[in-house]
Amino acid sequence: MLSKKCKNHVKKSGTTTIGHFKFAIYASALLFYAAIASLIHALMPRFFESTAARIVAKLYNERLKDHPNPEYRKLLKK
Question: Between 47 and 72, whose confidence is greater?
Answer without folding.
Answer: 47
